[in-house]
Design brief:
This protein is α/β, with parallel strands linked by helices. It has 17 helices and 9 strands. It has a single domain, classed as TIM Barrel (Alpha-Beta Barrel), CATH 3.20.20. Bound molecules: coproporphyrinogen I.
Length: 350
């Protein structure tokens, strides 16, 4: 990677340079869920695959959809097409994606015995399709832009495993947290080990940057966050960093913890749009690169308003390297793809 970083800044290494807060020719940009339902070519491949998990389990199809936004837009990074719920699926919970409803587990974790029975899945057997997809994608990218591998944070995976799917109240996981904290700690232990092994297998297969999605960190009160979310993020960031892999941590809704998050040993923090980048930068004292954080709904505004919102975000970060432009959460399915072109061109041209 060092050799890559020392070449002149261009599309192939802008993102890696910004992660290290080295000077860049222009701000790099990628978009969470950039391969997804807002793209007609994604919907066509998804139709052919028959189901979302078939898409994830086929390295050829996963590669095809990863490449779709890269071929269409001037994006500065590709992200592995997969899902955070592959780990619990490999643990035997029986994952299904119900059309219009999202993920569902046939066997959610509802007892201490079920937690004690969980084992770290071997990323080279039950999850082999993931490193296989990484290799296929690296090959297809041919060095055009770096590839991001990812996993869910232990806390966020625990939420889905205990709730059994998306949740509004998080009653089951919070009940476990307060009534059987030692059992939740055990669940987080096996998940932290699983995520580490899984991410290292992605890196061995060619992922150049690793990202942790702590999508549900923000549902915790500060004290619970410090006990049940932050420690596993810190442990993972530290152990991956020892392997010299750039790590991005996205803990959605956890902006009250920016100071602590900026010291876990990650290279960048992903941010949602509930804080300005300038504020976040001051709070993290320029210790770490920042990724984000335009409200995804900005893509519904007119092209002219969108350009202004993009420029406002860039201006808010201010002068100096260390900003990776992104949305504050995933792009929504009914967005007009042409708006993504407007966004990317504005970031690069601003
Ligand atoms: O085709 C379809 O209908 C499925 C929609 C879809 C897609 C495109 C799901 C189901 N997952 C994905 C891909 C995905 N998921 C990626 C691909 C890479 C990219 O282009 O960005 C990534 C990084 C994820 C990560 C993911 N999955 C997260 C973390 C990020 C976030 O959104 O907070 C979460 C929470 C999931 C769970 C999940 N998978 C799918 C859905 C609809 C959900 C959310 C369920 C809920 O509402 O709680």
């Amino acid at each position: 990677m060092n050799e890559l970083l020392h070449r002149a800044s261009g599309r192939h290494n802008r993102f890696l340079r910004a992660l290290k807060r080295l000077p860049v020719d222009t701000t790099p940009v990628w978009i969470m869920r950039q391969a997804g339902r807002y793209l007609p070519e994604y919907r066509a491949t998804r139709e052919r695959a028959g189901s979302f998990m078939n898409l994830c389990r086929s390295p050829e199809l996963a590669c095809e959809v990863t490449m779709q936004p890269i071929d269409r837009f001037d994006l500065d990074a590709a992200i592995l097409f997969s899902d955070i719920l592959t780990i619990p699926d490999a643990m035997g919970l029986g994952l299904d994606f119900v059309e219009g409803e999202g993920p569902r587990f046939a066997r959610p974790i509802r007892s201490v015995d079920a937690i004690n029975d969980l084992r770290v899945p071997d990323p080279l057997t039950s999850l082999r399709y993931v490193p296989d997809a990484v290799r296929t994608i690296r090959n297809a990218l041919g060095g055009r832009v770096p590839l991001i591998g990812f996993a869910g944070s232990p806390w966020t995976l625990a939420c889905y495993m205990v709730e059994g799917g998306p949740s509004e109240r998080f009653a089951h996981i919070k009940q476990l947290m307060w009534d059987r904290p030692e059992a939740l700690t055990r669940l987080l232990r096996v998940l932290t080990d699983s995520v580490r092994e899984y991410l290292l297998a992605q890196a061995d297969a060619g992922a150049q940057v690793l990202m942790l999605f702590d999508s549900w960190g923000g549902i915790l009160a500060p004290e619970d966050y410090r006990r049940f979310s932050l420690p596993s993020l810190a442990e993972l960031a530290a152990s991956l960093r020892r392997d010299d892999l750039p790590v991005i941590v996205f803990s959605r809704g956890a902006n009250t913890h920016l100071d602590a998050l900026s010291q876990v040993g990650a290279d960048a923090l992903g941010l949602d749009w509930s804080i300005g980048l300038g504020d976040a930068r001051r709070q993290t004292q320029d210790r770490i690169a920042l990724q984000g954080n335009l409200d995804p709904a900005a893509l519904y505004a007119s092209p002219e308003a969108l350009r202004n919102l993009v420029r406002r975000t860039l201006f808010d970060y201010g002068i100096g390297s260390g900003h990776i432009f992104n949305l504050g959460h995933g792009i929504t399915p009914d967005v007009n793809p042409e708006q993504v072109r407007v966004l990317v061109e504005t970031v690069h041209g601003a």
